[in-house]
Amino acid sequence: MSARNQGDFFADAAFPQASGAPKRREAITDAGLQHFLNAYPGETISKEDLFYYIYGLLHSGDYRARYADNLSKELPRIPAVRLAADFWAFSKAGRALGDLHVGYESVKPYPVEFELAKPYEEFTVADYRVTQMKFAKGTNGEKYDKATVIYNPFITITGIPLEAYDYIVNGKSALEWVMERQAVTTHKESGIVNDANDWANETMGNPAYPLELFQRVITVSLETMRIVRSLPPLGEFAA
Predict the structure, then answer these.
(1) I want to staple 215 with a disulfide (CB 3.0 to 4.6 A). Which of 27, 42, 109, 158 is the partner?
(2) Max alpha carbon distance in the chain (Å)?
(3) Which pLDDT tens digit goes with each residue over 107-125?
(4) Could you tell me the pTM of the whole model?
(5) How far apart are CA 231 and CA 93, in angstroms?
């Protein structure tokens, strides 16, 4: 059985009906599900199982390497792996990854170490203000020391496991996305200021939110890579 285009599996998104009430619609087509039921006779597979199989598959290093050329110019191809056991391994991993990525704000912050400019008991709301996180200077010819991040003049984060940077999202580690977005920036053309501290204080009610988010994304990154590295080899496809 050849790999199928992602568009064969996903239905159109749901839109509000004329009455204004939203209607829930499955994101997996009947044809897409049947394609996999045919590949694994005797297996009971739901559209949700297939959705998480695809999510797990898209995290596979083997998959990304095999379809590297295609992924740069067209919709992903979705193969049916040969063994039903491997299908379920990808589906189970995809479900775990989905729960982790959707619930990233509720995971336990990674226990980094801190270097503080003054005793913690003396910290005020202003002492948690972040303008731009940056890496410490490197040693032994390295430009940066990614195990250490200068959060602001009062807080330096140390003990960051380097393997946390292995989780890449759109060409950049998830941690570096946090460092870039949890900052104060000004749009050059409009002059509009985007201040992450406003969100932390006014919406989240927690001035340390950007700091704790960084710690949580360390946890998410490490757990993501643990799951990804446990995925089975892509191997051959179902006939």
Answers:
(1) 109
(2) 66
(3) 999 999 999 999 999 999 9
(4) 0.86
(5) 7
Residue appearing with tokens 């996180």: 133
Percent of the chain beyond pLDDT 70?
90
Rg (CA), the chain: 22
Q: CB-side exposure of 196: number of CA atoms within 13 Å?
A: 21
pLDDT of residue 73: 84
Query: Per the structure block, which two tokens stand in for 45?
Result: 């597979």
Burial class (CB in 10 A: 0-12, 13-18, 19+), 119: exposed
Average pLDDT over residues 27-33: 91
Distance CA 211, CA 153 (A): 13
Q: How far apart are CA 180 and CA 175, in angstroms?
A: 9
Average pLDDT on 228-238 reads 85
CA distances (Å), origin 116, targets 84, 113, 150, 218? 53, 10, 10, 20
